[in-house]
Design brief:
With 227 residues, the chain is an all-alpha fold. It contains 9 helices and 2 strands. The chain has a two-stranded antiparallel sheet. Helix 2 packs across helix 7, helix 4 packs across helix 7 and helix 8 packs antiparallel against helix 9. 11% of the residues are buried.
Length: 227
């Protein structure tokens, strides 16, 4: 029975102090006059709980006027420092909600420090609580693959160059026969150009295909030897 009672009390305590809910409540009811870092209409609140404790902070939020009327020195000091501006009471808030706000105020700086530390931590693999950094050498096959890719690119450029050169050779050889064909066969210029273009395309495709196949075969042989 005692264990059950302790468990109920502990659960109630944990439930009654919710940081996230307290943050939302602070934004709704307090942020218009208070900032956690700097003075506004009222004082900055990031260290209020550390300075005055949770019970005092809860009373101050619940009914500031009553706390001041009781003769509380710090409540009076704040009231006078901020031009005797009356802070409204929050008696309409539930006890659980007041606890949540106080919890947010109490943990604000801790949460902020944790977030800053997490952001400053460099990305790394974590194993067994220790940071593991891979400092091993790059595998040789990576360099080989990069080399093979570079060779393929060079082959493609070379094949393109060969194709252009053959186009130039074929064009120069056929220029001297254009007029002869037109006169001999009574063909117009467009028909002659189409036949020449077809011939050039076939020749270039044959040359380029043959050259690329040869280079690919050499690369495959080298890869097999490497394995």
């Amino acid at each position: 029975m005692k264990k059950l009672l302790v468990l109920i009390l502990f659960s109630s305590f944990v439930y009654s102090q919710d940081y996230s809910k307290g943050k939302d409540l602070f934004k709704t009811h307090c942020a218009a006059c208070h900032n956690m870092e700097r003075k506004m209409v009222g004082p900055a609140l990031k260290d209020i709980v550390e300075r005055q404790g949770k019970d005092w902070t809860k009373k101050w939020i619940y009914n500031n006027n009553a706390l001041r009327d009781s003769g509380d020195a710090y409540a009076i000091q704040i009231w006078e420092e901020y031009n005797k501006a009356a802070m409204p009471g929050y008696q309409f808030l539930k006890d659980e909600e007041l606890n949540n706000i106080v919890e947010y105020l109490a943990l604000y700086q801790t949460k902020k420090d944790e977030a800053a530390a997490k952001a400053a931590t460099p990305p790394a693999a974590v194993a067994g609580g220790q940071v593991v950094v891979n400092t091993g050498p790059t595998p040789i096959y990576v360099y080989f693959l990069l080399g093979a890719c570079l060779i393929i690119v060079i082959v493609a450029l070379y094949a393109f160059y060969v194709g252009l050169r053959h186009i130039g050779d074929i064009t120069s050889k056929t220029q001297s026969t254009n007029l002869y064909l037109m006169r001999k066969l009574h063909m117009d210029q467009n028909k002659v150009d189409n036949e020449i273009d077809t011939l050039i395309t076939e020749k270039v495709n044959q040359k380029v295909t043959k050259k690329v196949k040869k280079i690919k075969k050499e690369i495959n042989n080298r890869l097999k030897n490497f394995k």
